[in-house]
Amino acid sequence: MTFRSKLKRFGSVLPSAAADCRLPSVVCRLLLLTAFCLLPTAASAQQVVDKMVATVNAAGQTRCQACLITYSDLLWQLALQPDTVLVNPSSDELNRTLGLIIDQRLILQEAEKLPSIAPTTEEIAAALNELAKAFPSQAEFQSRLQSVGLTAEKLNEIVEQRVRIEKYLDFRFRNFVVITQKEIADYYRDVYVPRLRSRAPGQIVPTLEQASPAIEKTLTEAKIETDTDAFLDNARERAEVVTLNPV
Question: Looking at the 3D structure of the chain, how many domains does it have?
Answer without folding.
Answer: 2
